[in-house]
Amino acid sequence: METLNSIIQKMETCIRDNDNLETVMMDCMEEIEENYNQLDSVQPLLRLMERHPLTDFGSPGPIVHFVERFYKKGYEEELLLSLKRMPTLHTVWMLNRLINGTDQAEVYLDLLKEISENASYDKEIREEALHFLSIH
Description:
Layout (H helix, E strand, L loop, with lengths): L3 H14 L3 H15 L6 H10 L10 H6 L7 H11 L3 H12 L5 H12 L5 H12 L2
Helix pairs in contact: 1-2, 3-5, 5-6, 6-8, 7-8
């Protein structure tokens, strides 16, 4: 059995090489689901996204399907920590999914606003945050 980090490294290599990410990601996530189906796997997957802030990981994609299993079991906190470290196009979109599923969106909307105003983030990420703010 491969370690969680080595499985994530396979996905990272595909991102860098721009080579068949969707297929490799699906295979890797299947292995993670079988062997590492726990909340502790969420943070390393979010950190992968942080290292590649403009990468399209699917819609929603196998990583999102996996991490959202831990909704109301610690996933939200992990996502917020990730967004505070390094927001990405995909994690901003994931935050919008949280906003759509809660009655207490204020904290999430405040974070979207912070992201949209922070000039140190990529323009595409700020614009994505602004877009989601405009629909709420």
